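Dear colleagues,

For the upcoming journal club I promised to circulate an example of a predicted protein-ligand complex. I picked one with pyridoxal-5'-phosphate because it came up in last month's discussion. The inputs are reproduced below in full, followed by the predicted structure.
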Amino acid sequence: MQHIYLDHASTTPLIQPVIDEMNVVMREHFGNASSIHHHGRQAKMLIENARKTIAQSLGASIGEIFFCSSATEAHNMILTNAINDLGVQRIISSPLEHHCIIHTLDHLAEVTDVDIVYLNVDNEGNVDLNQLENLLVDDQKTLVSLMYVNNEIGNILDINRVSEICTVHGALFHCDTVQGIAKLPLNVNDTPMAFLAGSAHKFNGPKGIGFFYMNGDNIISPMMYGGAQERNMRAGTENIIGITGMAVALEKALEEKEERANHIKALNQHMRNRLVELDDIVINGVNQIDNILSVSFPATDRADMLMFNLDISRISASSGSACSSGIEHDSHVLQHIGHPAERKTIRFSFSHFNTIEEIDFVMEKLKKFTPVKIEA
Ligand code: PLP
């Protein structure tokens, strides 16, 4: 058995059509999109075609899509400049957001007067949307920043409800849609929002390229100055190889959406069926996306070695822990859903490249590293 990659929520491999497209662009379309000559115009056209692909997939206007280096960059800019430019006085978020949101909010709490409020979450990772509704009854100018799909436990947020609540109360909805793009329904006409952001490497595109949607009614200033690229929203020569690769990756993901989803659902179900062979297993989260399966293993004297043992068995999964000051502890998400610190969580995340045989191989290994159920 080859190495088995079960960490697709972290990053995904490039697919051949993306590599082919990027090869052509690297070789033939080296012009700078800001130049007015033939080569420049060609590069510009490729960028605008890619923008159209992304805009159409979201039901957005072409003028509402901007390219940037990553979702982290987009989220930093949106949260920071919504305060400066849109008069946001309060940001409501959840403690389960990605660090690129939480750490930006930590920083903003230090350097601005903005009120940062975190919604309550329960032990399944449900965010309290009744609390959100209650908080929004006052008339404080508010931005609500909530993620579509949690990258650690896979919980899917009811973005329609959040969007409705925000619309009724005049709040700005900013959605971290990184894990949902090309997997779940996402259309800004059906689900109005002020901002969203995506990242190519989560859907088999290249790393270091992402995009954001900014609704035409809520224009903010850029984070960087020094060039008129991206209609003055993101200075710096465009990453045309990344942009074109991302657009092809998105096209393919949408074309094969149902086929990939069915395959991934079957993998998830197979693993869940087989996990019952192990003793004292808990699946973290609720209403999860099928490509993420966060499994909590019992506390044993070998639990801490689980990730290491999987790794030496040539299985790449993700540990639900973070390391600070040399001490490993549960991630902020697991801590907030009350995951017992003595247990060990591993996130298995699938793609259409994985097979049932790979899941069976993982299960055979897991049976060696963690207690197996003893039938009565
Ligand atoms: N938000 C979520 C939910 C993510 O999973 C990630 C990446 O893991 C990010 C944001 C950050 O994206 P990027 O790597 O493009 O900065």
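Two points we might discuss: Residues 70-72, 98, 100, 147, 151, 176, 178-179, 199, 210 surround pyridoxal-5'-phosphate (CB under 6 Å). The CA atoms of residues 182 and 253 lie 6 Å apart.

See you all on Thursday,
B. R.
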